């Protein structure tokens, strides 16, 4: 096991599209992010995993320019964008980085049709100038996300299922031809039966469009469906990260092990008292994981784990 002095970024890439280096974000006394470093590169997915409040959404909002870090640096295609740039630079970045939100019901305007939702960004960013180009562009986008244009384009959000709405949201994000897609818990409000379809769609988009995908989830089991690399976060800090298969298959940090042990095993029957034992164990793991250590150990070619701090 090699100890490394600085925190190596997750998803080490020759030419990342977006890179965060030691990002901090405090809200008063709350340290939402404590030195998060990561790289997002084309055709590659990174999963950010952790429980509620660990800082996942804050990280996504910073990447999408909806929030500003209180420390650290942010780079876009090698250019330092930590401070606000010119209006043109900001507009270009906001086009390049698109978000898909958790709630597919709230993210579409109920008074507009699917056609309107998709034609608008196409027109705004000059990807469809005439009416005919808009109709064709919307049809292409709907086909891309697995929706039949003739059956979908004229519909309003309330006429669609949750999964169909999320596909429209993904199509809308794709309309501006982004480089980066940030998907914040994109399936957590959907029926279990349709979640895998959305994850497979994201994985296909990443591959075929060579997009950089940041997939945010509290469910570590789904990370392997989508992402080549994973970061496990606890209390604003990266505690374990690297190749998804290595992190999931050979988890070293007790908090990662806790997340994995919470994944239901259909082959194991439920035993009375299991949940109480699990909750007690979970509290103990959180107590051990909370103290911060700067020591990071390399346990695989791309697999890093933060050492536990001293518990008083
Ligand atoms: N605008 C804010 N003002 C004050 N505290 C905030 C704000 N935004 C986030 N926080 C705090 O920062 C921490 C991280 O929150 P964040 O929403 O990033 O976590 P999360 O992992 O995305 O959780 P969830 O899955 O519930 O969305 C939490 O303690 C939260 O209360």
TrEMBL record:
Coiled coil regions in record: none
Main location: membrane
Localization terms from the record: Cell inner membrane
GO cellular component: plasma membrane
SMART domains assigned to the protein according to its UniProt record, in alphabetical order: AAA
Keyword ATP-binding annotated: yes
Topology of the protein relative to the lipid bilayer: Peripheral membrane protein
Domain ABC transporter, residue spans: 18-260
MF (Gene Ontology): ATP binding; ATP hydrolysis activity
Pfam family, one: ABC_tran
Lineage top rank: taxon: Bacteria
Keywords linked to the UniProt accession: ATP-binding, Nucleotide-binding, Transport
A biological-process GO annotation: transmembrane transport
Family: Belongs to the ABC transporter superfamily.
Name this polypeptide is given: ABC-type glutathione transport system ATPase component
Organism (species): Mesorhizobium sangaii
């Amino acid at each position: 096991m090699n100890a490394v002095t600085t925190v190596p970024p997750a998803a080490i890439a020759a030419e990342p599209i977006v890179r965060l280096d030691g990002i901090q974000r405090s809200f008063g006394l709350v340290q939402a992010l404590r030195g998060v470093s990561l790289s997002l590169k084309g055709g590659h997915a990174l999963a950010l995993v952790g429980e509620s409040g660990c800082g996942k959404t804050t990280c996504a909002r910073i990447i999408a320019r909806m929030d500003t870090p209180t420390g650290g640096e942010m780079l876009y295609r090698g250019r330092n964008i930590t401070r606000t740039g010119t209006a043109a630079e900001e507009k270009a970045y906001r086009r390049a980085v698109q978000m898909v939100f958790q709630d597919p019901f709230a993210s579409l305007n109920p008074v507009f049709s699917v056609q309107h939702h998709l034609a608008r960004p196409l027109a705004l960013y000059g990807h469809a100038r005439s009416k005919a180009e808009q109709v064709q562009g919307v049809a292409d986008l709907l086909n891309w996300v697995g929706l039949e244009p003739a059956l979908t384009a004229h519909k309003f959000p309330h006429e669609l299922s949750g999964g169909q709405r999320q596909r429209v949201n993904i199509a809308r994000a794709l309309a501006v031809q982004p480089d980066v897609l940030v998907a914040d818990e994109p399936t957590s409000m959907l029926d279990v039966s349709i979640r895998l379809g959305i994850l497979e769609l994201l994985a296909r988009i990443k591959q075929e469009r060579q997009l950089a995908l940041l997939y945010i989830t509290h469910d570590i089991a789904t990370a392997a469906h989508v992402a080549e690399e994973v970061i496990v976060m606890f209390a604003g800090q990266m505690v374990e990260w690297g190749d998804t298969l290595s992190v999931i298959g050979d988890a070293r940090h007790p908090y990662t092990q806790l997340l994995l042990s919470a994944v239901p095993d259909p082959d194991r029957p439920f035993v009375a008292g299991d949940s109480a034992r699990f909750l007690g164990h979970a509290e103990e793991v959180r107590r051990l994981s909370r103290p911060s250590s700067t020591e990071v150990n390399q346990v695989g070619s791309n697999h890093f784990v933060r050492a536990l701090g001293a518990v008083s």
